[in-house]
Amino acid sequence: MFCIAVGEKLVQHSAASLVDSSKHVIHQLKSSFYYPMWILAYATLVEALWIEISTTKVHIIKFLIYFILIAFLFVLASGDRINYSISAPLSILAFLVFFVLMIFLLHISFLLEIISAFFGFFLILILILLSRRKMGFGDALIFLNIGTVCGITGCLWILSLASFFGCIICIPLLFIKKLNAKTAIPFVPFITAATAFWMLLGQQITHWYISIL
């Protein structure tokens, strides 16, 4: 009974968080030029992913899981950009959903899924401690989901790419004094862009990197 009660509370909090985040997205769509560009980018990404991986039944299932992950990240990115916060209940519920999908639909090993998920989670926790909490706990929860879907290699590449994209955007803004060292910068939009990039070109990047070692 206790587990059922906890599950109901988690679902309720997650649903409320999803509704709030969706309202923010809709509000921004009505008031900003940039959010239609996000929607266009998302539609383009989905089409590109479909062309890239939708060849067999397994690939189609993988595409659908990627589709859900990117949609989830887009919602969180909007919330992170507006409120600088990420819903913990929504992230945990998403992790449970992805975990079940990967095990029962793609038949990934239970142990491998646990290792991959918590590798991403603890990787960001270590960075949070090293950065003296300049990164948020929500980023660790996001990488819990990324590790579940993309694996250990995906976590490493996505973190590297997100940091690289962040530097490309933020360093020029520092030079022109639009930002300073104390400015809070939402990291989830960069994580979302890095995840999309890895989904499209991850295998090619990994093969290229191995070939030059």
Search tags:
mainly alpha; 213 residues
Tell me what you see in this structure.
The chain is mostly helical and 213 residues long. Helix content is 84%, strand content 0%. The chain contains seven helices and no strands. The protein has helices at residues 2-31, 34-53, 57-83, 88-104, 110-130, 137-175, 188-212. The protein is globular. 31% of the residues are buried.
Percent range for helical residues? over 70%
What is the distance, rounded to the nearest whole angstrom, between the alpha carbons of the first and last residues?
54 Å
Query: What is the average of the pLDDT values?
Result: 77
β-sheet strand percentage: under 5%
Q: Report the count of strand segments.
A: 0
Q: Give the helix/strand class.
A: mainly alpha
What oligomeric arrangement do these chains adopt? single chain
For the sheet with most strands, the description reads:
none
- N-to-C series of helices and strands: HHHHHHH
In short:
This protein is mainly alpha-helical and 213 residues long.
Write the layout of secondary structure elements.
Layout: H1 2-31, H2 34-53, H3 57-83, H4 88-104, H5 110-130, H6 137-175, H7 188-212
Helix pairs in contact: 1-3, 1-4, 2-3, 3-6, 3-7, 4-6, 5-6, 6-7
